[in-house]
Design brief:
Distance between the termini: 30 Å
Structural class: alpha+beta
Strand content: 25-35%
Order of helices and strands: EHHEEEHEHEE
CATH class: Alpha Beta
Helix content: 25-40%
CATH architecture: 3-Layer(aba) Sandwich
Number of domains: 1
Strand order of the largest sheet: 1-2-3-4-5-7-6
Amino acid sequence: MQIRKACEQDIQDIEAVLLDAVRWLTSINKRAWSEEDVAWHTLSQTHTIDQFYVVEEKGEVVATFLLCDADPIYWPEIKPGQSLYIHKLCVMRKAAKSMASQMIMDYFKAEGRRLKKDACRLDCRTNKPELKHFYEKHGFQLVDEGEIVKGYCTSRYMYQLDD
């Protein structure tokens, strides 16, 4: 399994990974995003392909995530460039028992250190206990919880990086 930066040719695979998650989560009544939320024409309004990464296993894309150095919606008080943020972390169901999630979290923290950021930061909906546990298991500490986007209670997490 390997992680690499995504390119234009990966857009369909990125959408497929995200759609796989949307459909599975909807089927178990734990909806996170809509199909429209993960369509490239929506994602590309706020993100560029060079922010995305893919995880490949035997030549097939099985996971995706994006890294950016600013998050004015969920972390407006943090100066752009100060921290590293992860969004749209997603692993296909058929790779759920693989080490993809662990690899992504390790990569996220390593990139934060390599880029000399003060912290790695992320957010999730407060009503997602399994996801919150996953982040906490990887050393992320809860910063706060509250309604940042109207109608959604959000939990914000941080992993402090060494100097």
